[in-house]
Each structure stands twice: as C-alpha cells, then as structure tokens.
Amino acid sequence: MKQLASFGPANRTARSEETHPLTWRLRDDGQPVWLDEYRQKNGYAALRKALAEMAQADIVQTVKESGLKGRGGAGFPTGVKWGLMPADESLNIRYLLCNADEMEPNTWKDRLLMEQLPHLLVEGMIISARALKAYRGYIFLRGEYVDAARNLNRAIDEAKAAGLLGKNILGSGFDFELFVHTGAGRYICGEETALINSLEGRRANPRAKPPFPAAVGVWGKPTCVNNVETLCNVPAIIGNGVDWYKSLARPGSEDHGSKLMGFSGKVKNPGIWELPFGITARELFEDYAGGMKDGYTLKCWQPGGAGTGFLLPEHLEAQMYAGGIAKVGTRMGTGLALAVDHTINMVSLLRNMEEFFARESCGWCTPCRDGLPWSVKTLRALERGQGTRQDLDILLRLVDFLGPGKTFCAHAPGAVEPLGAAIKYFRSEFEAGVAQASNAPPQLALTN
Known about the structure:
The protein has 448 residues and is an alpha/beta fold. The chain has three domains: 22-247, NADH-ubiquinone oxidoreductase 51kDa subunit (Rossmann fold); 269-331, Ubiquitin-like (UB roll) (Roll); 346-437, de novo design (two linked rop proteins) (Up-down Bundle), CATH 1.20.1440.230. The protein has 17 helices and eight strands. The strands form two sheets. The chain has a four-stranded parallel sheet, sandwiched between helices. It has a four-stranded mixed sheet with strand order 6-5-8-7, with helices on one face. Helix 14 (366-383) packs antiparallel against helix 15 (391-401). The longest helix has 18 residues, at 366-383.
C-alpha cells in the first residue's frame, strides 16, 4: 500500500502544508509521527488558536462556512451536523464520537491516518469537542486495527502529559478526556446509532430516528459522531481559514478541500493519495494508479467501496466529488476505487459481495434480514449454471425491495446498489447462468 500523496503527476513528491493538509506531515519511512515531531510540523497550533482566539460558536461557524462534509461516505455537512447540538447550557454532558470502524471493503484511508498521524486525529477531536462543548470523546475503532489502537493510545498519553488533554487544556479552562474503544468488528457499526448501541454494550442495531444522536445519543446525552478523515480536516481549516480550504478543490467541484482517494485491483500502482475534489477519475486511474497491469483490461470500477455501484471505463471522465459521481449514476462513497479486470465474472463477484453484506446485516428489519440471503442463494444458483429464467427478475425485485427508504437503515440499499448496476451493465453474464437450467423447476418468485 502506497502512502504517497500528491496533487499533480509531474510533482508526486511535493507535499506541503498549503496543499496537503492531511498528509504533508507523513514520514517517508512510514513510521508514526509522535508528539515532538508533530509539534515541529506546526502540530497543535490550530488548537492553541481555537482555544485562545475563538469562541465556541466561531469554531462551528468556521467549519460550516468551509463546506467540510463527512468523509465516511454519507457526505453530510459537518458544520450543519455540529449545529444540531442543543444550545441549552444546562445539558452540560455531551459526547464526541469518532467513527473509526472502517469496515467498508476496499477502504483503508482512516487506517493510514490513525497509524501514521495519530496526533492529527487527537488535535482534530479536541478542537471539535471545544466547538461542541463535549467533555468526553471516544474513538470507536475497528478491533482488527491493532497498530492503530496502540499508536492512538500512545498519542493520547503524550497529549495528556503535555497538558493538551484532560483538565484545563493549555490553561483555557476547557476539559476534555479521550478514550480508544475497540469494537468486535461489525460492518453495521458504521451506522452512527448502531455504533452508539455497541459503545453502550448493547447489540449493534441501528436506532429509530428521530430522536437523532444530537439530542439523544450515548447514554441518552447529546452526541456527535464524525468520521476519522472528517475530524482530521478540522485543524487545517481552523489554522488556515475558510478561503484557503475552499481553494483546494478543482473548478467545477461542489465539494471543498482535499480528499484521500485511491485505486486497488489489478492496477500498476495501487495506493492512496491526497487529491483535490474535482479531479477526474481518469487522472486518478491513469496518472496515479498507473492504469491496468500488463495483460489486463479495465472491465468496470467502483468509485468508493463495495456499497457503491459499478461504472464502465467511459465513466472515468467523471469528476471525483459527490455530485460528479452522482451524474454517472452512483455515489462517491469513501473515494477509494476498485478496478475490476476482464478476467472477473460479475456473477461470482456479486455473490461474494452479497455474502459479505448478508453476513453483516444486523437482522433488525425483514427486507435486509431475508432479502440479502435470498440474493446470495439466487446468485449461487446462477454461478453454478443452475439458475432459472425468473432469477434475474427476482434479483431486480430485490434491488427494488431493498432500496432507499424501504429498510430501517442504509445497509441494504448499499448492498443492492452494486447488484443493480452489475445486472444493468453485464446482464448477459447473469443470463449465462440460466442456459444450462432451462428445464429446471422454477424457484419461488417474490410477489408485491
């Protein structure tokens, strides 16, 4: 995995504070940046500014004006989310949660930040907690991220010893405690209310909304949940200002700032790079990932995780921001793309994906609990060449039945989005699984 970040193919090694707010501090040897080095690289300067020069409302307003959006996949405006926290000062017990579960297949951007720049996340959380008037924070971390847990805990200890965490931070009168909480490894914990339930020691089922976490969150108190990469953007926004942050994106992009993007699969140079919103997918694929390996051709690609729809090579002209990817029919998601090569059978690929999504369903609502295993059963039959003529109709009905607004949370809609796209673009591969079973008895068909 490459950790190099750059804004231009002609100057891949040039990273600076002005152009690469997330990655300019990375070491060339891949080792973590600890407190002394982080401070030498202007670390915690934004925190000092936030505590000494800005009121709580000013921090919220600055983040709102910057246009920072959530980097976990949903893309909700961060400042707007912060503004949902109650203004009532009597509600003095508030929590800030960092969603570091990162269970999305083909996504490891948060891992890079936590393992190599743990103090960036710590600083981002302290500033954010000040804005939210939160006195305690939790980093809800995927349990398999052992190195990230170790590095984050060391960074927290270093920050405490330096007076950057705990009571009366930097003499400001602001108190904030921060803890790392490792989860058991469930995809559904990426949904913020399922994460809250898990943190409380409950089964990781999503909660009904409203009430939203800003009103009733952890242990019934006001709570804000933000993604790792989202929080890591906050110090640079506070330190450098709104106009600078907006200037990072390419013309035409409706999203501001930079984003960790990547490509994996049979590409010559798989990796992660910090890039401006609005860069084209073709630039990401060809100039950074190097195109396909010799002997392989690009069949299709996903723009940001297993829960995003497949796109064709001609869609590489799309700009990498939420609206740009929406124009070609899917979501940007996490921004870490997957290249599917010509040797991959789409039925087998989708069967593998749907097995994952079916296993990770919390089982709370019927469409997801029963529909996803049904899709796996149907895809297995097609994969073996034992499908029936009704199977494609069944799969398409499942795509509809499990779509947005028809399930308790967004798990099922994300699971069936790639399935619908795969049938749309590669229907013949699914039909091929029917040819050998034309005389087989039909499966039970779904009804409205």
